[in-house]
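Researcher: Next entry: Cyclic nucleotide-binding domain-containing protein (Sphingobacterium siyangense).
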Amino acid sequence: MDKQLLLDSIQKEINLTEDEIVRLLAVVKSKKVKKKQYLLLEGDMSRYALFVASGCLRSYCVDENGFQYIQQFAPEGWWIGDMYSLVTGKPGNLYIDAVFESEVWMISKVDLHRLYQEIPKLNVYFRILAENALVYYQSRSMENLRLAAKERYEKFCTRYPTLIDCLPQKQVAAYIGVTPEFLSKMLHQ
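Model: Predicted structure:
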């Protein structure tokens, strides 16, 4: 398995030595995921940080009426996980599944904490990821509160330009918080 995409992502922020790369890659596990296959169910304990090597994953929750609220899409080169569960060790709130056939690289929480001790620079990398995620979720929360559906759709297109033409309209609607019917009418006005 070629892990260069993962290394490129990390080395955009920090420089690893050859020895550090070897130690990191020794704990990375690969998993092929079929379309619609779950990696995490609501109530499961999250034990891995997930990096999308190919394909696309999504995280979402479901309300009492069965309506999905998509929190994030993770195309190739993105990280995804249920951070609440991963950090607290409590059962998670999210479903994570594959939008398309995908391959993910997983690092267990246990291995990640050991790597933080062995390679302190990885603390910096994952802190940067956490800060970027916080900015993303804060921005997304404010967008959902302040923007009209059309503007939320435009933000989606900016955030996920590679997914605009390949995602089912139902999933785009769930991401921006409208029904598929509303999205269809909005796009055809």
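Model: Note for the record: The two ends are 46 Å apart (CA to CA).
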